[in-house]
């Protein structure tokens, strides 16, 4: 998990930021990105692609990463912006803001290289996009865990209480059978991504 980082450290890069996002495929809520700079040579046992980890394991690793990181940052782009600029551009924007947030974090550390999960960040910094990066780079995996835990907490603690009828705490906004049924029953909330619901809303109109 440190192959990419080891090479970059050996080339003189001191602050390598892993960058990843979550929520790209959701029907509801923000897309959330994280950027994480870990200390040179640090090995974090258990850090892996957040999708492969249990919720309990992600929560434990979140605390470890926050404690051990040189710097970390998260950024959100909301559903209105997603509908306006499309999800790919919104995910890129969230990643860019997460990277910029590193210098503004409590540690105030600006990265000098970016390792990004299968995407390009709008930044003048040197960077490398890695397919399935969260499975092969510890820095990207750490970012994926921070982003996933942050978004899951938003689903449970902020959004589900606002719109309890949709079951957001259960499915986290993804297009599950339950979620689609609730949208058909209640219509979309203000936080649903209308551009993702064209077919579903057409079905709803046919029902009434």
Question: Which key features would you list for this structure?
Answer:
208 residues, alpha/beta, 5-stranded mixed sheet, 5 strands, 48% helix, elongated
* Fraction of residues in H or I helices: 40-55%
Q: Which ranges are low-confidence, i.e. pLDDT below 50, for 5 or more consecutive residues?
A: none
Give the helix/strand class: alpha/beta
Identify the strand order in the major beta sheet. 3-2-1-4-5
Tally of strands: 5
Largest sheet: 5 strands, mixed
How far is the first residue's CA from the last residue's CA?
A: 53 Å
Topology order in helix (H) and strand (E) letters: HEEHEHHEEHHHHH
Query: What is the percentage of strand-forming residues?
Result: 5-15%
- Could you tell me the mean pLDDT? 95
Shape: elongated
Number of helices: 9
- Rg of Cα set: 18 Å
How would you concisely characterize the structure shown here?
The protein is α/β, with parallel strands linked by helices.
Structure description:
The structure is a single chain. With 208 residues, this protein is an alpha/beta fold. The protein contains 9 helices and 5 strands, in the order αββαβααββααααα. Strands 3-2-1-4-5 form a 5-stranded mixed sheet. Strand 1 (16-22) and strand 2 (31-37) form a beta hairpin. Helix 2 packs across helix 6 (138-162), helix 3 (79-85) packs across helix 4 (87-104) and helix 8 (177-186) packs across helix 9 (198-207). The chain is elongated, with a radius of gyration of 18 Å. The relative contact order is 0.20. The model has no long low-confidence stretch (mean pLDDT 95).
């Amino acid at each position: 998990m440190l192959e990419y980082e080891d090479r970059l450290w050996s080339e003189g890069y001191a602050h390598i930021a892993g960058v990843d996002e979550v929520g790209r495929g959701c029907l509801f809520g923000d897309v959330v990105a994280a950027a994480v700079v870990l200390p040179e040579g640090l090995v974090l046992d258990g850090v892996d692609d957040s999708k492969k980890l249990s919720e309990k394991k992600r929560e434990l690793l979140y605390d470890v990463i926050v404690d051990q990181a040189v710097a970390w940052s998260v950024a959100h782009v909301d559903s209105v912006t997603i509908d306006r600029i499309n999800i790919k551009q919104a995910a890129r924007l969230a990643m860019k803001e997460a990277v910029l947030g590193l210098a503004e974090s409590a540690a105030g550390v600006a990265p000098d290289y970016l390792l990004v999960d299968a995407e390009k960040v709008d930044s003048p910094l040197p960077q490398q996009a890695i397919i399935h990066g969260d499975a092969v780079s510890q820095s990207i995996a750490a970012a994926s865990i921070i982003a996933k835990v942050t978004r899951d907490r938003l689903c449970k603690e902020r959004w589900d209480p606002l719109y309890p009828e949709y079951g957001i705490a259960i499915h986290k906004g993804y297009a599950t059978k339950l979620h689609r049924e609730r949208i058909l029953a209640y219509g979309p909330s203000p936080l649903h991504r209308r551009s993702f619901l064209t077919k579903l809303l057409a079905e709803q109109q046919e029902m009434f």
